[in-house]
Amino acid sequence: MDNIISAIDMVKDVGPTVWKYVKYQFCPNDYVDQFIAGQNELKRQLEDVEAQLNTQHNQPAKKARSQVDNWLEEARKETSVNVEDLICKEGYFENICSSRKFHKKIQALNGIFMEGGNYTNAGQSLVIDDHSIEYCTTVFKEKQEQLKLRQKDIKAQLETQCMQPGKIARKEVEDWIEKAGQRIAIKVQDLISRGECSSSSILEKKTEELKQTFEQGEKYTNASESLVVDDHSIEYYAPVYKEKQERLKHQKEHIEANLKTQCMQPGKIARKEVEEWLEKAGQQIAITVEDLISQGESSSSTNLRKNIEELKQRLEEGKEFTNASVSLVIDDHSIKGVPLLVEKCSGRDDIQDQILEWLKGDEVTRIAVSGMGGVGKTTIMKQVHNQLLKESKFNKVVWVKVSKDFDIIVQHKKKFDILKFQKRIASSLELKLELQDHENETKLAGLITQRLGQGSSVLILDDVWEPFSLDDVGIPDLVGNNGCKLVLTTRLRHVARAMDCKVILVNPLPANEALALFLENVGSDVFSNGKIKTDIEPFLKQILQKCDGVPLAIVTVAKSMRGKLNPSSWKLALSELVSKFEGIVDCLKFSYECLKPQCQECFLYCAMYPEDYEIPKEHLIEYWIEEGFIYKEGKTREVMNWKGHDILDILVDNCLLESIKSIDEEDCVSMHDLLREMALEIKPQFLVKAGMALEKLPEEHEWSEDLLKVSLMRNYIAEIPSSMPSPKCPMLTTFLLSNNKISTIPEAIFEHMLGLKILDLSYNRQLSRLPSSVSKLEKLTALLLNCCASLREVPSLSSLVGLKKLDISWTSIEELPQGLNMLTNLKYLGLGGRLSETLDELLQNLFKLQHLTVKTSTKFKWEKIGSWGKLQNLEKLNLYNLNNLNVVFGDVGAVAKWLGYLQKLQTIHVRYCLQLEEIIESESEEGEKVTLPKLESLRLNSLPKLKRIYSNSNTVLICDSLKNIEIESCKNIESVFWSGFNPLPNLEYLHLYNLVNLKSMFNEEGLGLSPLAPPTIFFSLKEIEVYGCNQLKKVFSSGWLLGYFQSLETIRVGWCSQMEELISSLAHEEENVTLQKLQSLELIQLPALNSIYTRSNVLICDSIQSLRIANCEKLKRIPLNFHLLDNAHLSYPPSLKQIVVFPKKWWASLEWSHPNAKDILLPLCEFRWIDWFS
């Protein structure tokens, strides 16, 4: 150390210039500013992560991830370090030490800050399941089982002792049995769902209660212990029993009189359920107290109470038959129809039961059973047909096979042959037709109507391909007890809709039921000692998997494999499986061939995805647009998107695709394996090896010259060898290589693919550069490089003048690609990565641009707003992670001018822009209007500094087409609507999530609202959702404000800790307010809520269907409007179908304006926890 100090002193002696340099290098003061700035940034990040963690931690049975906890500990440690602690005593060597300390700490801060970026993403889960309860759960269930057995023994012993004359259970024994039952009924999942089990402590407590109850019951297990006492309560229950009997007797006499009158109608007989009720009621009336006592059955009040309960149940059942509007009789049917031969229908009981329920009910008169070919629709309906023959509701059940036989060509157009169809129905009805009736549609329609209108009938039409007019055919609707219920089977859901049918979808069988059906048809030879033979089982299961739950496929293959015992036969069958399915493929191909050419192309393209893949609808439609399947010059991207969804609906309706939701609730479609194989057979020019875990490109011989499209997406291809020659595929137009692990692409790979139009290399995260040969793909219309995180180099794009879509978002590109400004045909542009340039010059040339997405987290700048004026075709604007962005649209005094060019802008989506304070900034003069006439959707997410959308009171913002506003995790927003907003007559959805400082939903004064103003500003608003807004105390600040919201159908408010009132009321307001269209009201986890609407007032909601309330402990009144009927009975809104409340004890504590209200509503109630996200 002395040597170092001496060296420093020597340098100091050299001269002031050299010493100044040394001092600058080692002085700690130069690091202080950097250290303090780093600490402040980390503190802000720490606050955000803690807030997000607190929100997620409130979920039941969740705890912080260990890496998050570790990060929080490190961040808190580093932000607590004082500057003074890092500065050593004055001296040259000490300065060097201090500098090193500061340098080390700054590096530590940067490292922690970079790691923290992973936890600020709103979609990132910071918590995991609390697995500490697993052991406690096991112990808890063991104790429950022990208690259950003890309770069973004691109950059996009690029952034996109660058989003694004049004996009744001791009260403490009954209490123990009841308490034990409550303990046994507790489910761990119930505790978790209520949020009471976020740790093992509650389970441990409940386990102790089980142990205590078990020990308390030990004394009752002693055989010498008496569990009964003398019964002295018969005197009380006997009169009650007699009174109930007398009431049942009068009710029975009343029903018998009505039944006798109704049975006097010709062709009527008593309903079976009425007869059964009368018989049971007569039996109960005949039993007297004396009879029970003499038989030794009523020596205790327990049995008397049981009989009283049975009498009450019979009285309740009889109420239905005393209703004057309820018929006690049905038609006395003659022969209904002939049973159909049908094989056993495995795994379809639920569908059959649903169809039968609809047919027996009054609400549904037309049913369509829809599903892909071979899935079992006809078999199901044959079973239903035969079941209906046993029922008494219908006097005729008619089966007609329709199929494609009734399609005829008239003037080059396909038409449904009504006359031929009528003759088929007439034959099924056994109508005797005169010769002149055979060719007369009108006469035939009249005869069919007459026959089907005699009483109630069911007409089943199998395999319908075209919609038709029921009136033209002569099929009468069911009116009262006369007419016809219609059931049809079809592969085409649009036929079902055109026929105004209630649709029930038949899906393929699940694995266990598919196996059962296969084994049922393959015969007993595959079994040995009751199990499938081990040498056959693996091949059988692979074959079964290939059938993918389609009953027709399963039965066909199973029957073809009967008697084959050699494993080699099964192995051969697996390889030849496709040939075994010719009949099914022909069946499926017919559905395909019925499509228009445009829909056929779109359907075949779905085979480009991996087998069983959940295909996102938006992703698929984007491909269709770029392929040109739904592209039309001059059409907006929105219109093309609509067309894409229309085609998807057609494909789903034809059972060629299935509409599903992915695990993250994204709208997707899936393609049945057999349909995918069929598509690839139809298009042998497609080379598809998607999702097959390939590690290299297909072999050279697989690249035939006639290939049109190649899909290798979602594999593990890491390298394309430079020695590999370019595949000679001059006709290739589409090459999909997304979601692989490619790091390098050789220059020559595209040499013989000059016809390429679509090249998708997205999600190859190791790819660092594109070969220059890409510049030679002059026919390219779409180049997709998004999420190639390592990509830094892209060759010149100047020759790709036909390019319509370019996506380089989420890459490491630092400069805009050369020639980008020459791509004047671009309609879709995705930018991002580490770009530090402005958009000015670029946007001036891209005047056809419809969709602009910018995703970056570094230095992207917006300098000259005037360039927006060139984007007259822009429809969608997405801005992500622009950390330096302060204002989206802003240029002093010029906003109205340049926003005026964005007349086609439909969507604005801004998220993760940490410095953004305003969306639109304007200092325009009073009276100026800012217009976005096509804007439909505004989504703002994770903008921590955003204060307002638009705030200039001098000008008016006009967004007449705006339908959707969604604002999430913008903690500085205090009010959503304020001065400057014009009426939003088309706004339908308002969703506000985690706005922790939101204090008012609607600023009446700023918006110019008053009880006298016309209610047009929110005229179309259908849905309001408010979640996690902890400063918000009310949604509507006054009752008159509801006049602006008369289209509201749904109100959902949850997890707002300070919410006190849903609707406030002023002293001078009328007593009641109305929301005529409100269908659903949901209030969850609002601990401070004491009123839905001021206590003395009523909220009139005659359309209300669902009421869901959970954990609103302070709420004591539900202001539903009840009606007093002419017979003085109370009635709730007839539309109300469901009330879900939690906990049950809260329901018991509610106050009602009418004493019978709670009892009237009880049948609608479910007592369970409500999941906000369900």
TrEMBL record:
Protein's UniProt keywords contain Mitochondrion: no
UniProt xrefs under Pfam families: LRR_8 (PF13855), LRR_RPS2 (PF23247), NB-ARC (PF00931), WHD_DRP (PF23559)
Keywords assigned: ATP-binding, Coiled coil, Leucine-rich repeat, Nucleotide-binding, Plant defense, Repeat
GO molecular function: ADP binding; ATP binding
SMART domains noted in UniProt: AAA, LRR_TYP
Domain of life the protein comes from: Eukaryota
Domain AAA+ ATPase residue range list: 363-509
An individual GO BP term: defense response
Name of the featured protein: AAA+ ATPase domain-containing protein
Originating organism: Rubroshorea leprosula
